[in-house]
Design brief:
Length: 307
């Protein structure tokens, strides 16, 4: 699955700047159907398949969201506190795959799983999930949200799924390698419509977006480099995502994703990101390790399947 989120208001904001456009992938209901993995055996959950006419690679962050749902179905009533995953092989969107859970600890307060994404008997991603019961505060503090404008003045971006509003502050997200350079920061407002009252799905929708803009933030300070080159002349992909969920998520209300790329070099990028709710509360924090590299081979590149 390659395209999560299309705004219905159009593709230009108040300043008239056009936003990136993608062919329609489906609706938010289709995205929820994919994230809501089905139990297929002891500790095993199967994904619905939704092949794309564009990129045929399942997004790394989709796999992370599906793992959160799978673990939450195994232990209902507990919140996913931490979820991390390393992505080592391509997962194709037209071939069945499963999320496999292995319980590593089980207690009254915290439980944990090792998680594997398996396709055609090959492990394609591996991670860990920590689930816990909430507790009264002993201490509490949180970093303040960035001082940016709200969603009403941000630029709508079309990523090919109806039912999700996605708006980027200062038109900082672009597919154009010729766009003006800027700081390695992208602030994006997002909300979904008609999300069921199911907290693991809300958390999975947040997780599913964690891999979408950190590479673009890393590219932003570098002239002549942009996402229009990805999978064509340069190889890009999230290689590891680590997500901490600090509170129950409301994906049907505005969330502000603050992406900050703190390093790029040696073919890798590192981003430290935060998610705030509409009132400024810190809902989640995540890091993304991604690659940005020249293709190792000069042979013909299939941009639908290449990283």
């Amino acid at each position: 699955m390659t395209a999560p989120g299309r705004t219905d208001e159009g593709v230009a904001g108040a300043d008239g700047v056009p936003a990136p456009h993608a062919d329609a992938w489906g609706d938010v209901a289709d995205l929820i159907d994919v994230l809501d993995v089905r139990r297929s055996g002891e500790g095993r959950y199967a994904s619905a398949l939704r092949p794309s006419s564009g990129r045929s690679i399942v997004e790394a962050s989709q796999l992370l969201g599906q793992a959160i749902v799978a673990a939450s179905r195994e232990l209902p009533g507990r919140r996913a506190v931490s979820a991390s995953m390393v992505f080592t092989r391509i997962v194709h969107d037209s071939v069945p795959f499963e999320i496999e859970l292995e319980a590593t600890s089980s207690g009254r307060t915290f439980s944990s799983f090792a998680v594997h994404v398996v396709q055609q008997d090959r492990r394609c991603a591996t991670g860990t999930l920590l689930l816990g019961a909430t507790s009264p505060d002993v201490i509490r503090h949180a970093v303040a949200p960035p001082d940016v404008d709200g969603p009403e003045t941000a630029v709508p971006v079309d990523m090919g799924v109806t039912g999700r509003d996605l708006r980027v502050v200062d038109a900082a997200y672009s597919n154009d390698s010729g766009a003006p350079v800027g700081p390695p920061v992208i602030d994006a407002w997002m909300r979904y419509r008609e999300v069921p009252d199911d907290q693991p799905i809300h958390a999975a929708l947040l997780a599913q977006f964690t891999g979408h803009m950190s590479i673009a933030a890393a590219m932003r300070p570098h002239a002549g480099i942009g996402q229009d080159q990805a999978h064509r002349t340069i190889s890009t992909a999230p290689m590891a995502i680590s997500l901490a969920i600090h509170a129950d998520v409301r994906a049907d209300e505005w969330m502000l994703f603050h992406h900050l790329s703190t390093f790029a070099g040696d073919g890798m990028t590192h981003s430290e990101c935060r998610v705030h709710d509409g009132d400024g509360g810190l809902v989640a924090s995540f890091t993304v390790e991604a690659m940005v590299r020249p293709f190792a081979s000069t042979s013909a590149i299939d941009e639908k399947a290449a990283l």
